[in-house]
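ok so for the tutorial part 2 we go from a plain amino acid sequence to predicted structure tokens. step 1 is just haveing the sequence, like this:
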Amino acid sequence: MGILLHGKIIWRRWRNRIVSRILAHRIQYHHPSMLCHDTAIWDYGYTDLDAIQIGKHVSVGPYAEIRVYKRSPRSSVEGRLVLGDRVLLAAGVNIIAAGGTIRLGEASGIGQHSVVVAANHQVTLGREYLFTAWNEVRTGVEIGDNVWVAANCVLLPGTRIGSNAVIGAGSVVTGEVPANEIWAGVPARKIKNVPADRSAGARTLSE
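step 2 — the prediction. this is what the tokens look like for a chain of 207 residues:
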């Protein structure tokens, strides 16, 4: 019995490794311009490649974990992931695109160990939270172009971040961040506007 149990455990671990390698290879094959570290984890339905859209020259760092579940028994909302051109996902980034769409615009980046979640469990007294249906009203995360989300941030379902915005390290974002603003804190709030490039303006006026 002991030998059989050891054998089952070994087989299960090898099988999981093989499946992970195949899923990662398929993503790389369909997006050859993407730079993806070997330790990054891709988890999605084998027939659900259409739920993942990746632009050119995307970079995915070490130990990033990207899960895209187009269908889920806990939500009728499809999961999707859309990454624009030149998106950067740094080391340890965790993305869960299930029960909603996570979309990053061109040249946007997510800093180390940040978490982006498309849907949350509903919380009801008397029920086990982990096994409740997901909220289908507040779903998805939308990030515009040229947005920088610094390290250790959490972007919760319903987050909308406008283009050129910056999210400071360690922030928790739950709502809408207008374009061209810097936000930080728990929960995140406006700190200031993104400063204008005065040197560029000066060059333009002198030309």
